[in-house]
Write a structure and sequence with these properties.
It is a single chain. The protein has 437 residues and is of the alpha/beta class. The chain has 2 domains: 3-41 and 303-433, Lyase, Ornithine Decarboxylase, Chain A, domain 1, CATH 2.40.37.10; 113-296, Alanine racemase (TIM Barrel, Alpha-Beta Barrel). The chain has helices at residues 26-33, 42-60, 76-84, 94-102, 119-127, 138-151, 190-198, 221-241, 267-285, 298-301, 335-339, 429-433, and strands spanning 11-13, 19-21, 24-25, 37-41, 64-69, 88-91, 110-112, 132-135, 155-162, 184-185, 204-210, 247-252, 291-295, 305-317, 321-326, 345-347, 357-362, 371-378, 387-391, 412-416, 419-424. Bound molecules: ligand LLP. Residues 69, 72, 90, 113, 173, 212, 215-216, 251-253, 295-299, 335, 339, 396 line the site of ligand LLP.
Amino acid sequence: MRNTDRICENIGVNEDGILLFAGQNAADLANQYGTPLFLMDEDRIRDRMQTYAKGMKDAFGDYGHVLYASKAASFKRIYELAAEEGIGVDVVSCGEIATAYRAGFPMEKTCFHSNNKTDEDIRYAMECGVGVFVVDNCEELFAIEEIAREKGIVQPILLRITPGIDPHTYAAVNTGMVDSKFGSAIETGQAEQITKLTLTFSNIKLQGFHCHVGSQVFDSDVYLQSAEVMIAFIADMYEKLGFVTEKLDLGGGYGVRYTADDPQIDIAANIRQVGQTVKDLVARHNIPMPHIYMEPGRSIVADAGMTLYTMGSLKRIPGYKNYVSVDGGMTDNPRYILYGSRYTLLPATQMLAERTMVCDVVGRCCESGDVIQENVMMPDTLMRGDLIACLTTGAYNYSMASNYNRIPRPPVVMLKNGTSYVAVKRETLEDITRLDV
Ligand code: LLP
């Protein structure tokens, strides 16, 4: 198998040229479950959860915590895995809260984000016993105070702060700059104002601060810079308001390899570095050590996932282009059309064949923009019925899938110890028309 194919250890190939994922034969899985098909390697997910949990524990002892950012992949089984691995979760909507709740997840270990929580969201989150709210703005603060009073509870919260850091990632996921739609900026004085305001409420307990600068971040400096800015802010609030920060959440996790060109990140080593920096900063500012949280999503599930498609047609337009059409597309993976995201695509049933043909792998939606990837190398011998695999689709694929063109969403099948089981069923035409009156 070529090095550029093996972007994660759980990819292999057998002597018949069939792709193996988590040691299992892709063609057999496609036969059993049909395509398009989301596969997820359970051991890989657990391994990543453990890497973060151990990394945070080694760096901060009992003060280090991990929240899986479940927007990356949200279905009941994922919350069960997080519960079994002893980590918390970040949820961003009533849908994610309901999924965690119905999976039996310990709700006190959930952290509720979003830049615009409706009164209904706030009520539902409180009724489900969400542990902590990450509050984005003043309006939300007033609403939480009022609903908490109505319910006779004191709601723990963190305030979302914008540290003003550029994470050098793609614009759509860049959230830590001063002009972001998220949080309150330190630079403009609004972070201090909202902190002061929060401390006047009696049904809200301010536990600390949250920041998140961006996603698909490779540069470990970004977290060190965030820590520096946030701890200086914490020290400032301690000095000015006498407020002792119990919790500091540094946001999402590290970037992942979509292609062989992406770097490989040593998560444990990076967390160690963050740990040292945070401890030095806390000592330098002479403040009590807060509990430190990280919220990885992508790097927990991305390379645990793979999508299998069946090829329909190979259209050659002489002098122009070749198109390989598959039975999925932007409905199960909108990331190329949204962000130009790169992926590694493999001829899963012809892995030993020469790849001499440049083609665009496209979906089956009725629009030209429905492209999974451009300029992919594939064998000239590809035929209708061959399988095409798209690697590293575990994060933000199932969770961003849609029913555009009324196409049913694929199932999620988990792989574990040479066996497989369905975590999310394939949608049917019944499901598609279920809500139509
Ligand atoms: N915490 C917060 C507050 C976040 O907004 C995010 C991601 C995370 C944690 C998790 O970050 P991660 O570890 O996954 O990088 N749909 C886009 C990604 C959007 C990310 C939004 N926030 C994509 O497909 O690339």
